[in-house]
Amino acid sequence: MFNTDDLKQIESRGSSAAVVEQQIERFKKGFPWMKISAPATPQKGIAVLSGEEADAAVKYYESAPVNGKCKFVPASGAASRMFKDLFAGLDALKDGKGLAEGAPARRFVENIDRFAFYDSAVFGQKDTSDKYMETVLSRTLNEEPLAYGSKPKGVIKFHKYADEVRTAFEEHLVEAQEYMRNADGTANIVVTISPEHEHLFRAVLDSVKEKYEKRFGVKYNVTFTFQDKATDTVAVDVNNNPFRTETDSLLFRPAGHGALINNLNALSEELVSIKNIDNVAHDRYLPATARYKKVLMGKCLELRDKIHGYLRELDAVTENYVSYPEPYLPGYSPLGKDEVYMKPECQMLCNDIQEFLEKELCISLPESVDCKSRVMMLRRKLDRPIRVCGMVKNEGEPGGGPFIISEKDGTTSLQILEGVQVNMADEQARKSLSEATHFNPVDIVCCLHDYKGNSFDLGKFVDHEAGFISSKSYQGRELKALELPGLWNGSMSDWNTLFVEVPSETFNPVKTVLDLLRPAHQPENR
């Protein structure tokens, strides 16, 4: 299948022929559909907190001990999709076709002075001519000092203030000092970027770090990290043969945000907040944003302490318990004696744990499980990384959704699914999708340490059967791309999960440049 040059190319990327062959087999075999039991809703699966309950969660966050905090911001890739409509408009103008009334590119030019990156010295005097529109689009997309068509979202100026403008990256710095400070006054931020963009992010950081540290009384520890090239996946043609470029080399593509599980796994901090680079808002939204981040972190620490308490109790009642193999193997007895599992105090504790898992995390066990298997299964369900995910009422925004699914081991769990994971030919899946009330804004808090204070190996909790296959193109040729299990999808499938409703005002993504005209991104007097 591979020639000598192919093998050299594969090895140079830190991968192996065996791994690439497995990827090609995955294209042929595909991925299994997720078996949806029901949508997660406020009736079951999504916690809707009262004001008093939210206040209590904030207080818990502010008082609970934690071994380090970190803000994790996925920010890889250029903002080309953000400006897709502008590129199309520029092409139309160059072809002499003009822009129709209401076309996105025309709306952009008509409102150019409302964007934070507007500079009259760059764009000149406004008018309605095609020539002016072409000038504005070209200078926004292709010409310095902007040239935003090839730059990452993080360094694009999002918001205008009385005395400054801020990029999306800067807004994350401001957010971090508000809700992610450590006890020593530091704020740790890890930003995942592409290597070719590092100088752009560092330039922004260097220009504001000292100013913000002085203004907010904080010390920033910012780390830029890259998606490992070894996690890229090979592309195939429509017949599942390796896709070859015009130079006859293999084509590799980034495997999606699921590859970032390796970057997350490298963190030493216990409590980690995950939020996408483009989900920021104008300063006046910061109080609500910070409050509900603290709510999520408080609920996460509450869950941590409850789960860790149960694990210590299980240690006490099972005395000489030793570790069991991963994954859970039915019928395996690590003690060699069933009496320990059948102790009344052990079974009473298991009853409490089972009730807690079913009520709080929608984890139900198979109906017929013997004493020994129940203890082992409950322990395995407890001893996992924890995530608390904010969920927003579904008002038409794009994003995956929260569902209760049936697992391979006979249990149920809470999962975030993308549309491509839902089998639309299945009546139950379609029904669950139609009844869904919320969607995933990627507002996640994680606890990454176990009950003994050690970091989990996150690679052990990935569902490798939860990836994606999508259709793409390369120089006009159709291809198929393989994405690893998404960071908040399959990569976190085997985590303990809690969904909590958060206000829609905490979710303000910028998917297209025109989103910057929304109230959350405009000065208040607009």
TrEMBL record:
| Pfam families the record matches | DUF4301 (PF14134)
Q: Which SUPFAM superfamilies match?
A: Nucleotide-diphospho-sugar transferases
DUF4301 domain residues = 4-317, 349-522
Q: Which InterPro entries match?
A: DUF4301, Nucleotide-diphossugar_trans
Q: How is this protein named in the record?
A: DUF4301 family protein
Q: Which organism is it from?
A: Candidatus Cryptobacteroides excrementipullorum
